[in-house]
Amino acid sequence: MKSLSVIVADDVDGIQDLVGHWLRDAGHLVTCVSTGQTASRLLKKQHFDLVITDIIMPDGDGLELILELKESQPSVRVLAISGGGRHIQAADCLKMARNLGAHGVLLKPFNREQFMEAIKLVSLDRGVDES
Hints:
The protein has 131 residues and is of the alpha/beta class. It is 46% helix and 19% strand. The radius of gyration is 13 Å and the shape is globular. The relative contact order is 0.18.
């Protein structure tokens, strides 16, 4: 798989660190942010091949980010991740993300193998596999 520029939007620092580490080890360029609004601002200034977004975050959730991307940058691939929230189940979050246009979804907690497989599937769907 070719190197991708990836933005990871998750309000949990530990998820950002772990996912960022896995992606960098695989040769990808990674930027991590804590809110959907921050991701949105960066996406207006810089091109990313892949957006990995949590669904439930303060200051702009992943669903808003997916909707914005579908409108402004439809070629950007989206992987939605979620562990749910206080009032909504994770499976429901991911179903909404898929319905809004996420190319892949992944339920938290996940391991490295599950995560990298999801990245591969989302990237293959885009046709960026060069192996």
